[in-house]
TrEMBL record:
Protein name: glycine dehydrogenase (aminomethyl-transferring)
Pfam families registered for this protein in UniProt: Aminotran_5, GcvP2_C
EC number(s) reported in the record: 1.4.4.2
Keyword Oxidoreductase: yes
UniProt function note: The glycine cleavage system catalyzes the degradation of glycine. The P protein binds the alpha-amino group of glycine through its pyridoxal phosphate cofactor; CO(2) is released and the remaining methylamine moiety is then transferred to the lipoamide cofactor of the H protein.
Catalytic activity, as annotated: N(6)-[(R)-lipoyl]-L-lysyl-[glycine-cleavage complex H protein] + glycine + H(+) = N(6)-[(R)-S(8)-aminomethyldihydrolipoyl]-L-lysyl-[glycine-cleavage complex H protein] + CO2
Organism: Candidatus Phycosocius spiralis
Enzyme class: oxidoreductase
Domain Aminotransferase class V positions: 180-302
Residue stretches making up the Glycine dehydrogenase C-terminal domain: 379-473
Length: 523
């Protein structure tokens, strides 16, 4: 069999259809599994409790008479059900996850180990502060390093996701404008290429969104920006590096223009992993920026895992940070400022019931301390180097959306697919057959048929070479008319093409028991 340059057998088309179907429904070691309701039965249970003796029911006749309808499974049945499902899942622990904008980097086991220490994992949010000095210490140190890395004045730790952090920053801007008698400023400028959460956040805060055009080079169109400035502008929401994976090189000018017209500069910091340790957003004139701890500082995410979006704030906005926050008392002890009245500033309110995601704070701090200043800088540099390596190796096979070097993401458009009968979606499905989670597709919207690839610093050169070999193999196949490889893909996945529109619009979220012959007979 022919081998490609990374020692993988080069692909003859071996469509699954050629393989015999199995009697068990398994495909090799991949086991079949049905829904949990169809695996267990309501009448059975995996738990064997002795009958209660001598206890008086205290529910005064309110005890449930009917079954809860939960399936009863033995422990091995339950275990196998979930492990089999997990085999159908893709994970960063399984292979490269090039999903652009999401920063699917390796989650170091050391972070997990620290987060699971009972002192962090079992801490209760209502414990007296005298008993959680260590946990508050982690929050205080994390705040210190976030402020140091970003060159800002303060940080609100409590927001629970990037989008929540955006809300925090924009509410701080809202409060600052109101405090300055500038409540007529309600227009927020947002570039066309922005992540959808940016305009959504602005609207959620009661602002009106005004779109700024992208220039031909994928960056903010300065001339368009200038025409949009005015007395009613509250600020701008800008991502840097932007969602096209490019550094906004006029960022200082943009900051000056916004400040000059009386507005604030919100920076979407989801892409901070490209510049952490190299650039301090505070030096660029940023007033507020959220940091996705789960992206830049590595916490498992994407499968509904927790998020955390601390928001760093400039001198002008720091006084408006929400409660609660940690302070150091004169005797060196730490305390939480819980109420607006106890604050020296003018908090705009509170965003969460308690203090935020303890597990993520300990993971992020572990990541920072284990990397050190040089390691954080190197991680950013390697993320950028890896993306440029991918771009350079694929640019002759696929069309690069914007010329020149990129930051941490390589962005391609679909011009190179024209006339092949293969779409961006088809190409992504064929990547699944190759064993890769597809890249981000059709985002940013300013690029036609966009394919956004973010390898992150986690990938070795060997792993990037294997990915590039698959991608260029697919690109050649598309151009040479092997259309079926794409339009019928994925051939090797447990589920094939889904009706994605229907799945999004009319999802079936609840299992309904099939009607049994006995029920039919009873009617
Ligand atoms: C991920 C991301 C967000 C939103 O962050 P969440 O933590 O998912 O809420 C916002 N902007 C950009 C550019 C992102 O990549």
């Amino acid at each position: 069999m022919a081998m490609n340059n990374v020692g993988r057998p080069s692909a003859p088309i071996a469509h699954e259809a050629a393989a015999p179907t199995t009697f068990s429904g398994a495909r090799g070691l991949l086991q079949p599994t049905s829904l949990i309701f169809e695996t267990g039965s309501i009448e059975r249970t995996g738990v064997d409790l002795p009958p209660t003796k001598g206890l008086k029911a205290r529910l005064s006749g309110l005890a449930r008479q009917t079954s809860t309808g939960n399936p009863g499974l033995s422990e091995p049945e339950a275990m196998r059900h979930y492990v089999r499902l997990s085999q159908r899942n893709y994970a960063i622990d399984l292979g490269m996850f090039p999903l652009g904008s999401c920063t699917m980097k390796h989650n170091a086991r050391l972070n997990e180990k620290m987060a699971r220490l009972p002192g962090f994992a079992d801490v209760h949010p209502l414990q007296p502060v005298s008993t959680v000095q260590g946990a508050l210490g982690v929050m205080e140190q994390l705040s210190h390093w976030l402020i140091t890395l970003t060159g800002m004045k303060g940080v609100a730790l409590s927001p629970k996701a990037g989008a929540h952090g955006e809300l925090c920053g924009m509410l701080a801007i809202h409060a600052a404008l109101d405090a300055a008698g500038q409540s007529h400023r309600r227009r927020v400028l947002v570039p066309e290429s922005a992540h959808g959460t940016n305009p959504a956040t602005a609207v959620q805060c009661g602002f009106v969104v005004d779109e700024i055009k992208a220039a031909k080079d994928g960056r903010v169109d300065l001339d368009d920006l200038k025409t949009k400035l005015g007395e009613d502008v509250a600020g701008i929401m800008l991502t840097n590096p932007n969602t096209c994976g490019l550094f906004e090189r006029d960022i200082r000018t943009i900051a000056d223009l916004i400040h000059g017209s009386g507005g604030y500069f919100y920076c979407d910091g989801a892409n901070f992993n490209a510049i952490a340790g190299r650039v301090r957003p505070g030096d660029l004139g940023v007033d507020a920026m959220h940091i996705n701890l789960h992206k830049t500082f590595s916490t498992p995410h994407g499968g509904g895992g927790p998020g955390s979006g601390p928001t760093v704030l400039s001198d002008a906005l720091a006084p408006f940070a929400p409660v609660p926050y940690v302070i150091k008392l004169a005797d060196g002890k730490l305390d939480l400022v819980e109420h607006e009245d106890d604050s020296d500033g003018q908090p705009f309110g509170r965003m969460v019931a308690f203090h935020g995601q303890m597990g993520m704070y300990s993971r992020a701090l572990t990541y920072m301390l284990s990397h050190g200043a040089d390691g954080i800088k190197q991680a950013s540099e390697d993320a950028v180097l890896n993306a440029n390596y991918v771009q350079a190796c694929l640019k002759d096979h696929m069309s690069v959306a914007f010329d020149g070097v990129c930051m941490h993401e390589a962005l391609f458009d679909d011009a190179w697919l024209e006339g092949t009968g293969v779409s961006t979606l088809d190409f992504a499905k064929a990547m699944i057959d190759e064993g890769y989670h597809p890249m981000t597709m059709y985002f940013p919207l300013v690029v036609h048929g966009a394919m956004l690839i973010e390898p992150t610093e986690s990938e070795s050169k060997a792993s990037l070479d294997a990915f590039i070999a698959s991608m260029s193999g697919l690109a050649l196949a598309a151009k040479s008319g092997d259309t079926a490889r794409f339009t019928g893909a994925p051939y090797h996945a447990p589920v094939k093409r889904l009706d994605e529109t229907r799945a999004a619009r009319k999802p079936i979220l609840k299992w309904a028991a099939p009607i049994t012959p006995a029920q039919i007979a009873a009617e």
